[in-house]
Amino acid sequence: MSEIDELRLDRLLERATAINLDAVLITSDESIAYLTGFKPMQLERFFGVVVRPDRSSVIVPALDRGQIDDAPERLDRVSYGAESDGIPELAAELAGARTVGVEEDHLIYARARALAEHGFELAPAGAVVMGLRVQKDDAEIERIRAACELVQEGLRRAFEWLTPGVVERVLNARVEALLREQGASAAHPLILFGENAANPHGDPGLRELRRGDVVCADLSACLDGYWGDLTRCATVGPASDWATSTWQVVLDAQRAANAAAQPGALGRDVDAAQRRIVEAAPELGACLHGAGHAIGLSIHEPPFLVPRWNEPLAEATVLTIEPGLYKAGVGGIRLEDDVVVRPGGPDILSNLPLELTEVG
Amino acid sequence: MSEIDELRLDRLLERATAINLDAVLITSDESIAYLTGFKPMQLERFFGVVVRPDRSSVIVPALDRGQIDDAPERLDRVSYGAESDGIPELAAELAGARTVGVEEDHLIYARARALAEHGFELAPAGAVVMGLRVQKDDAEIERIRAACELVQEGLRRAFEWLTPGVVERVLNARVEALLREQGASAAHPLILFGENAANPHGDPGLRELRRGDVVCADLSACLDGYWGDLTRCATVGPASDWATSTWQVVLDAQRAANAAAQPGALGRDVDAAQRRIVEAAPELGACLHGAGHAIGLSIHEPPFLVPRWNEPLAEATVLTIEPGLYKAGVGGIRLEDDVVVRPGGPDILSNLPLELTEVG
Question: For residue A1, what pLDDT is reported?
C-alpha cells in the first residue's frame, strides 16, 4: 500500500476524545492497514495500534518489525520477542489511560480480560474507526475500482472456460490462480454449477458442467489492500424459462436496491427495496440473504444491508449490492456490483454488461 | 468431513463439569468442525455450539442450516434469520446456566459483553477444548498424512517449475491452483526467491528466479478439514557456501528438535533444542521464530514451540517443526516436517528427502 494519510490518526483521536476515551486500541488487520499501510498476517501473535493524545504507537511481533517502516512517523515502533505474548508491551503503551476504546468485533475475550486485569476499562469503539473507514476517499475508491477491473477480467476468462465437462473445482482453482497471478493478495472465486448454485455458500466440488446448467459466478479479489466483489450468471445453452424469469426478477431487484442506496437511507431500506421484489416471486426461489454490505479493506464490513440495520448510509460508502434467488435442486441467480453512495445516485464501479450470458 | 465421534461431546462435557462450568460455548471454526463435522465460513454472522449436561445444540444462520445435517443427532439444530444477530437464540440455549466456558482466543469482545449483559459469567475454556483437540486420533492423523502427501506433490511440482525467469507470484499462484484442483479447501504456498527468502513472512512478488538464488518453499494445504505444512529449499545451480553451511545447521536443528519432541517435554524445550544450534551460527543468519507449533484442524494451534511455552507435550500431538536461518540480502533456509509425538520418538508424516535440491 502507498503512503497513508496521517490525518486519519487525527480524526480518530478527535472522535475518540469526543466520547471520552483516553486511548483507542486498534487490532483488526484492516484497521491497522488503514492507519499504518501495513496489513499484518495475524495468527496467534498480537498486533495493535494505540492512538492517544500524547503518543501513539504500533506494536508488532519482532518477526514483523521490518514491515512497518512505512507507517506514519508519529507512530512509535514497539516490537516484542518470542518470550512475550505482546500484552505487557501493550499495557505499557496504554499506561495512564483509564478508558480504552477497542474494536469490539475483533478484540478477543482473552486479551480483553488481560487488559481488564491491568486495570483498563474497555469500551466499544468499533463504530469510531468504522465511521472513518466507511467513507472512502478518492484514492480508496480508485483502488476498489481497480480490484473490480481485475475481477471483471476474471469473470470474462471464467466464462470463456465454461465448456461442458469442466470440473467445478478445477475451474475455480484456475480462476483463483489467474487473479493471484495478476497480483491479488487474496481471491475467492465461487463459481457453482446447476443445482449447486442453489446454495449461496456452496463449495466447489467434482461436479462437471452440463448443458442446461445455470452457472452462478461470484468472484472477489483483494488488490493493493482493497476488495472488489462481482457476480454474474450464465446458462450452458439457451436459458430455461426458470433462468430467464429469475434473471429478470433479480435484475429488477438490483436496480431497486441501487436506486435506494442514497445517502441517508437506512441499511434496511436498501434491503427492503430488493426483498419486496424477490420475495414476490416465491415460485422462482427463496431470498436467502440480505441486499449486501459495505466493502473496502474488508470484503464484508458494516453497514450491512439487512433488516436489522437501522443506521443511515453515509456518502462515499462503497457497497456491494447482491440480490439473489435460489431454488433447491435447480440453481441460483445472483447479480452483484460494487457501487459508491452518492447524492445523485450510485456510481457503479464495474462496467460488465447486465446480461445472462449464454455459453457452451 | 466424515462422521464425527460423538464421544467428543461426552469428553468435553466431562472436562467442563470437572471445572464447574455449567455450559461450554464453542465458537471457532475448527472447534465447531471438531464437534459437528461442519466447518462454517464465518464472516459477521454468529455460529456456535452449546454443550451442556441436559441438552446441547448447534446454532447457525438460516443461510447455513442445510450444512449441519451430518452433525451428531443429539445436537439440537437452531437457526436464526436475517433480522437477528444470533445472540438472543444463543442466550436461549444457555438459559439456566450461570458459568459458561468460552474459547477465549476466539470469542469476540462484543459477544462476550452481550453474554455478560444476559447475566452469564464467562470463564476461559479454550484449554478444555484444545486439550481434546491436541491429541489426534488415528483417523485425524491419517488425514494430516493425506494433507502432507498433497503438499509433497505440490513441492515436487513446484521444484520442477523452478526455472530461471519464472516470476515468484506466478509460480505461487500456479502451485496454489494445483493444490486447490486436487481438493485442498485452502492452500498457502509461500515460495520465495533469493533475498526475498530472508523474510519468513515475505510476500511473493514480481521477482524473477535467477541462477545463484536460494529458494525457500513453504507449502501448506487443508484437505478434508486437516492441514499439512512442509518446507524444503533449493538452489538454482550449485549451492553457495552460505547455502550449504546454513542447510547443514538447519538440518541439525531440525533433528535436535525432533528428538526433543517427546511426550512430557515442554514446548520451550523443543524450541531450545533447535535454538541453541541455529543461534550458534550468527554469521549464517538470524533465528527469527520458534521451533514450530501444533497443527490439525487449524494451521496454527497450541502448543506453540516457543520460549514462553511451559506446558508438557501430550502423546499423539501433531507438530510442525520448522527451524530456519535468515540472512538479510542473501536468503533464508527453513526445513519443516509434520510429526506425531510418540513415546518411542516422533512419527514423521512426510517422506520427502531431506536434501537441499539443486534445480535449474
Answer: 46
One-character DSSP codes across B54-65: S-EEEEEEGGGG
Cβ neighbours of B44 in A, within 8 Å: 105, 293, 300, 302, 304
| Cα dihedral A59/A34/A305/A355 (nearest 10) | -130
Residue of B342, B339, B341 whose CA lies nearest to B352: B339
ipTM for the predicted complex comes to 0.88
Q: Tell me the CATH number for domain B7-133.
A: 3.40.350.10
pLDDT at B3: 67
Distance CA A210, CA B202 (A): 41
For residue B186, the tally of other CB atoms under 10 A from its CB is: 13
The H-or-E segment that residue B138 falls in is helix B138-160
> pLDDT tens digits, residue range A121-174?
999 999 999 999 999 999 999 999 999 999 999 999 999 999 999 999 999 999
Q: What is the 8-class DSSP label of residue A71?
A: S
What mean pLDDT is predicted for residues A324-330? 97
CB A305, CB A292: distance < 8 Å: yes
Q: Which residue in the set A66, A199, A306 is minimally distant from B82, CB to CB?
A: A306
Give all strands of the β-sheet with B214-223 in edge-to-edge order. B186-193, B214-223, B226-236, B357-359
Per-residue three-class SS string for A207-239: CECCCCCEEEEEEEEEECCEEEEEEEEEEECCC
- Closest CB to B181 among A169, A300, A307: A169
Q: Which long-range contacts (CB under 8 A, 24 or more apart) does B203-206 make?
A: B203/A185, B204/B168, B204/B169, B204/B171, B204/B172, B205/B168, B205/B169, B206/B167, B206/B168, B206/B169
Amino acid at A227: W
| Distinct helix (H) and strand (E) counts, chain A | 9, 17
Chain B residue whose CA is closest to A166? B181
Give CA–CA dist B106/A76, Å, rounded.
28
The DSSP H or E segment spanning B244 is helix B241-260
User: Quick check: B235 and B331 in contact, CB under 8 A?
Assistant: no
Class at the top of the CATH hierarchy for domain A138-359: alpha beta
Put simply, the answer to whether A173 touches B174 (Cβ < 8 Å) is: no
Q: Which residues is A325 bridged to in the sheet?
A: A333
The 10s digit of each residue's pLDDT in B286-327 is: 998 999 999 999 999 999 999 989 999 999 999 999 999 999
Q: Is B140 strand, coil or helix? A: helix
Which chain A residue's Cα is nearest to B110? Answer: A104
Helix (H, G, I), strand (E, B) or coil at A346: coil
B223-239: pLDDT as tens digits:
999 999 999 999 999 99
In this structure, chain B runs to a length of 360
Domains of chain A by residue range:
7-133, 138-359
Residues of A in contact with B129 (CB under 8 A): none
Nearest beta carbon to residue A308 from set B62, B83, B107: B83
Any idea which residue has 464425527 for its cell?
Answer: B4
Residue B241: count other Cβ atoms within 10 Å of its Cβ. Answer: 8
DSSP category for residue B192: E
